[in-house]
């Protein structure tokens, strides 16, 4: 079932959604709506050229990385020891999101368009989104960005212009989550890269428990609001 959102800042129960996680369309990308969405593991994902409306997803099988389970291979340990690259947090958010966009901007279904960039940049300015940067000297060679709530990070996109840069960023992110008292890095969807870094599936019940929220089951015939 797919719901149509209106101007009210609320979402229906995502348990009623489609198998791929799509459960709502419409609404907006306001800061308040995005914060509410991510509080329950809901995120916007749509081809900005092909779709006239925002599409909202909430997969009930969540692919996550636990900070203590981040996989650091022997080769990555050597890269870290070599200390060639500098890692920073929140020093170049707009550059990171722009790089992430440019890598896929000409592809069909590209989702990181002007509206998304504007919305997440505003989230960053308000302290609800973060970036990790990887530098080779003065050159930005990799990084990632995501939404951050109560120490948990909901990863959005990453890029790498040199080998291992995105892995370095993800390792740094795991350290940040652990030090911030967060529980998880939400990867949203499985990729071979994220799986190799320690990602695994958990069900939505465990996921929402880790986030500290409660979402009624379908049998309860209720919604988030």
From TrEMBL:
Family matches, as Pfam families: Leu_Phe_trans
Recorded GO MF terms: leucyl-tRNA--protein transferase activity
Superkingdom, taxonomy of origin: Bacteria
E.C. code: 2.3.2.6
Keywords: Acyltransferase, Cytoplasm, Transferase
Catalytic activity: L-phenylalanyl-tRNA(Phe) + an N-terminal L-alpha-aminoacyl-[protein] = an N-terminal L-phenylalanyl-L-alpha-aminoacyl-[protein] + tRNA(Phe); N-terminal L-arginyl-[protein] + L-leucyl-tRNA(Leu) = N-terminal L-leucyl-L-arginyl-[protein] + tRNA(Leu) + H(+); N-terminal L-lysyl-[protein] + L-leucyl-tRNA(Leu) = N-terminal L-leucyl-L-lysyl-[protein] + tRNA(Leu) + H(+)
InterPro entries with a match to the protein in the record: Leu/Phe-tRNA_Trfase
Subcellular location: Cytoplasm
First-tier enzyme category under EC: transferase
PANTHER family to which the protein is assigned, alphabetical: LEUCYL/PHENYLALANYL-TRNA--PROTEIN TRANSFERASE (PTHR30098), LEUCYL_PHENYLALANYL-TRNA--PROTEIN TRANSFERASE (PTHR30098:SF2)
Task performed by this protein: Functions in the N-end rule pathway of protein degradation where it conjugates Leu, Phe and, less efficiently, Met from aminoacyl-tRNAs to the N-termini of proteins containing an N-terminal arginine or lysine.
Assigned protein family: Belongs to the L/F-transferase family.
UniProt name for this protein: Leucyl/phenylalanyl-tRNA--protein transferase
